[in-house]
Amino acid sequence: MSKTLVAYFSASGTTARVAKELAQAVGADIYEIRPAVPYTKADLNWMDKKSRSSVEMSDKSSRPALADNGANIDTYDTILLGFPIWWYVAPTIINSFLESYDFSGKKIVLFATSGGSGFGKTVAGLKPSVAADAVITEGKVLNGHQTADALKAWAETVL
After folding, report:
1. Pick the residue with more confidence: 145 or 8?
2. DSSP assignment of 11-45, as one string?
3. Distances (CA, A) of 86 to 36, 53, 75, 147
């Protein structure tokens, strides 16, 4: 198996829990994608069109600043990249992350948590943010509690 990193962004803790379980199940390193300015509950109020997340998601060029750039991507072959689904796609901070590193020749497999929607056009929205020779694929929405065996079985199909 190639050297694998589980990188994730979590606004409420749900994706963090899944990412930690996934990393442990597959024996991968883990990296948290953190915004320079953490999101507050008010920032995440999707019903408020003026909330930070609503403003970011309505502007596809939005690139929230990252707290750091210490993921050491060049040491990994495969990145399992996780995030919550916002407005049927990845939050724009995922584009910020992808544009901050050289993913040339890397395999990026997406996983997400969602209150009800699937990946939508997530791959299409993220593909322009990585090198042309990076492979980025839709993985799986991992809602609810996932057993270590189920996570490992899924990961074995995509790694």
Report:
1. 8
2. SSSHHHHHHHHHHHHHT-EEEE--BSSPPPTTTT-
3. 19, 9, 29, 25
Q: Is 100 a residue whose pLDDT tops 60? A: yes
pLDDT confidence bin for 142, thresholds 50/70/90? very high
Q: Burial letters for 27-64: b for 16+ Cβ neighbours within 10 Å, e otherwise?
A: ebebbbbebeeebeeebbeeeeeebbbbebbeeeebbb
> Which one, of 57, 49, 11, 54, lies nearest residue 32 by Cα?
11
Spatial CA neighbour of 79 closest among 41, 26, 118, 43: 26
- d(CA 116, CA 101) in angstroms, rounded, equals 30
Q: Please report the pLDDT score of residue 146 as a whole number.
A: 85
Residue with tokens 């990946």: 119
Question: Which helix (H) or strand (E) segment is 67 a member of?
Answer: none
- What is the pLDDT, as a whole number, of residue 2? 64
DSSP state of 4: E
Residue 31 · residue 10 · CB < 8 Å:
no
